């Protein structure tokens, strides 16, 4: 992957690998998430979101920029704007099958309904489709997403901003909300699996009597690398809980569900009885048969890097001697795991900087490849404004894209790990 020499090097704390800042002139930029490459399929372009401001939560109808970075020339260009974003995953920008297909969320501010935009960033040609995007399939043909308005019921930062009164509520086992699928060629959208479908059809079966008096919402969803299976997370809380509806912290129950790409063969990979011990951030293994995750297994509040089969069997530690943290991804070579850290986690440095950790499963060792600042004033307003590095592999699986907070603003970086992986 060619990266222009015009991008300045990041040298603070002596990185173990070459690191470039690819947004040296543009403030407030970040890339989507640790499971999505912001780098285009050819390896030439990077698509980012630029926040209009960084010191407060966005308001309904507030627009952000979609920014395109040319890695060959170091050119930065605003290619569109969107009102369909939040501070953690932005507008859920995903590349399609080629460098001419960029997908992201927007909002019709007249109706407050979400839109999925297909943009050719080189010509400006747009197509508006109903619904929203969270993840796109590896072949670029199918987009999946939970309802981005409802996602805010349990946690801010990951969906779209609309007025509070425009956010629907899911009482009971809804058959009209769940995981949606959008065909990128025809523009047709359908409810692939409803919340009720999961409670009715999942194996091992879920005891519905425990959850009939509550609200359940879809959240994360991801295709496996092969495109033949999907993971889908759900969150439930008791209807009578007296907590702010978008900051539920007590009694929240989580499920990690997997299914075939057509919505059949619904399986519970991780349920509340396990997740209640503590955990976060699931991803697919490269083989598409297993999941990786941070999870507390023994009730000791110690996060481990764990793996579990798509059907919930064979849950166990990937490695005993090294703790979990942040947003872990197993490299396609099967030998390495890369992850970051939250500012409050034990592996962080306690000064507003965190490590990008490269874990070698064969050598049973780890190295801090980059130490990056993420502490920022916005977190005093809301934790939603935190900066997570979200390290994500480029299509060549040798370069790592991540976020940081450097020189008073959000910036995006690329590290060259070709000498290590």
From TrEMBL:
Protein name (record): Oligogalacturonate lyase domain-containing protein
Gene3D superfamilies assigned: YVTN repeat-like/Quinoprotein amine dehydrogenase (2.130.10.10)
InterPro entries, sorted: WD40, WD40/YVTN_repeat-like_dom_sf
Protein's organism: Paenibacillus anseongense
PANTHER family xref list: PROTEIN TOLB, PROTEIN TOLB HOMOLOG
